[in-house]
Amino acid sequence: MESEASVIARGLRRRDPDLLDRLIEQYQHRLLRYLVYLSGNRELAEDLFQETWIRVLERGHQYDGKHEFSTWLYAVARNLTIDYLRKKSPLSLDGLMEGEEHAPLEPADPRPMAWELMQQHQQAERISAALLRIPAEYRETVMLRFQEGLALGEISTITRSPLGTVKSRLYRGLNLLMALLEGAQA
Amino acid sequence: MTRETHDEARTLIALGESLSDTQQAWLRAHLEDCEACRHYAEATDGVVRSLRSMPLAADARLVRATQMRVRFHARRLRETRERMWLVAVACLGVGLSATLTIPLLWRLFAWMGEWAGVSTLAWQAGFVFFFFAPALVVGVLLVARGTHLANDSERLR
Q: What's the gap in Å between the CA of B6 and the closest CA on chain A?
C-alpha cells in the first residue's frame, strides 16, 4: 500500500488543489506556531505562512516522499523566513524582536473552566515571553523538539545542522528558558 | 561526583526521550543519588509539559485566505504552462515552415529582382525584411500584451 508521504508527493507534483487545501488545514496550527516563534512576530508569521504554502505549490515536485512531509514543510518555511530576513536587512532572526508588541496568544480550546483558562493563559504568556527572549536558533530547536515533537534527526535535517549542534542548542535553550522562567517567578 | 558528571546528566535530561537504554539506566542511577539533578529534571519536565500544552492557533480567516491564494496561484501556474506549451508548438511549426520555404522564397525574390531590374543588394534586403517583418510585428504585439497582463496582476494585488 502506498504511504501517506508518497501520496502527498504525487499530489504535489500534480499541484492538486484539494490536497493542498487538506494539507493547509492539517498543518495550520503547527506551521503557524513554528513561524511565530521563529520570526518572533505574529503578523510576519501570518504572511510567511501564506508564502510558505505558495512555495510548497511551486516547488512541490522537489518533495520526494521519502521523508516526513512535516520535515520538508518546516525546512521550506525556515528557508523562506531566512530569505525574508536577509532581504529585509542584515538582521539576525532576533533583530525582529526589538520594539515589537507580542500579540496575545489565542487559546486552541475555549471550553475549560474560567480559572483554568486564566491560569493556562498566564502560563502561556510567561513561556511565550521567555521563549522570545532566548536566541532564535535555541528557540527554534526547543520548539521543534518539545512543541512539535520532532526527533533530533529531523531537527538536524530541517536546520541543516549537525546532530551535536542540535543537542547542544536544545540543552542551552532549555537552560536559558528555565532561568528566565525562574527569574520571572521570583 | 564531578561537575562533568552533572553536566552530562543534565544534557541527557534535556534530550528527553531520545536516549538509549544504557543512557537511561545511567541517568536513573545518577538521579537516585543526586538531588540537584533530580530538581533539574523535575523543572525541565515542568517546562516541557508547559511547552507542549501551550495554545497557539491559526484562525479560520488565515486558513481560508491561504487556501484561496494557493488555488489562485495554482490556476495561474497552470495557465502559464498551457500558454508556454502553445508557444512551443507554434515555434516548432514556424521553424519547420521556415526551413521548407526559405529556399523557395529566396529563388522567388531573386527572380523578381531580376525581372524588376533591381540590384542584388536591394532584393536581398527585401527578402530579409519580408522574412523578419511578421516576427517583429508578433514580438511587438506580445510585448504589449505582456505589459497589459502584468498591469492586471499588479492591480489584483
A: 13
Which residue from A59, A61, A65, A53 is spatially nearest to A23, judged by alpha carbons? A53
How far apart are alpha carbons A132 and A129 in whole angstroms? 5
What chain A residue is nearest to B12 in terms of C-alpha separation?
Answer: A171
Band of pLDDT at residue A106, cut at 50, 70 and 90 = very low
Interface ipTM above 0.90: no
Chain B CA closest to residue A173: B14
Contact B106, B131 (CB under 8 A): no
Write out chain B residues lying below 8 Å of A170, CB-based: 14-15
> What DSSP line would sit under chain A, residue for residue?
---HHHHHHHHHHHT-HHHHHHHHHHHHHHHHHHHHHHHS-HHHHHHHHHHHHHHHHHHGGG--SSS-HHHHHHHHHHHHHHHHHHHH-S--GGGGGTT--PPPPPPS---S-HHHHHHHHHHHHHHHHHHTTS-HHHHHHHIIIIIS---HHHHHHHHT--HHHHHHHHHHHHHHHHHHHHHHH-
Per-residue pLDDT reduced to its tens digit, A148-186: 888 888 899 898 889 889 988 988 998 898 888 887 665
Average of per-residue pLDDT values in chain B: 84
Among B54, B72, B76, the residue to mutate for chain A (most A Cβ within 10 A) = B54
CB contact under 8 A, B51 and A57: no
Residue contact B44–A152, C-beta within 8 A: no
Q: Which pTM value belongs to this model?
A: 0.67
CB contact under 8 Å between B69 and A53, yes or no, is: yes
Phi, psi of A151 (to 5 degrees): -75, 160
Which range, of A64-78, A100-114, B11-25, B78-92, averages the lowest pLDDT?
Answer: A100-114
Contact call for A20 and B74, based on CB within 8 A:
yes
| Model confidence at A20: pLDDT above 60 | yes
Q: Which three cell numbers, joined as nine digits, stand for A19?
A: 490536497
Q: What is the pLDDT of residue A119?
A: 63
